[in-house]
Write a structure and sequence with these properties.
It is a single chain. By secondary structure, this protein is mainly α. Helix 2 packs antiparallel against helix 4 and helix 4 packs antiparallel against helix 5.
């Protein structure tokens, strides 16, 4: 529906695939980064998660998050500069949610 509303028609299969993968990789990057920042909480509440259970080190999680982020940004750049800008905004919001906004929500 978003494609039809924004473009007036369906986007090409190429653009649709790039868009899906870009959002998928950026979202995955934010989720991995969340696990990176929440490692101490997860040690207490979810010790079976990858980082607290030592299946993945914090360095590996950070490297995976950065790899996913750059992959998503490259794919969004291949769509357009506007898609890249929106992806960067999504990343900023996701990054701020992890260390900062989570604390603000927990205080209230």
């Amino acid at each position: 529906m978003g494609q039809i509303l924004a473009l007036g028609e369906f986007a090409s299969a190429y653009e649709t695939t790039l868009g899906f993968l870009s959002v998928f990789f950026i979202s995955a990057s934010i989720l991995v980064l969340n696990d990176y920042f929440d490692v101490e909480t997860d040690r207490l509440n979810a010790s079976d998660r990858p980082i607290p259970s030592n299946l993945v080190t914090t360095s590996e999680a950070l490297l995976l998050s950065l790899s996913l982020m750059f992959s998503g940004l490259v794919l969004s750049y291949l769509i357009s500069s506007i898609a890249l800008l929106l992806s960067i905004i999504l990343l900023i919001i996701g990054f701020l949610y992890n260390p900062t906004l989570t604390v603000l929500f927990l205080i209230n």
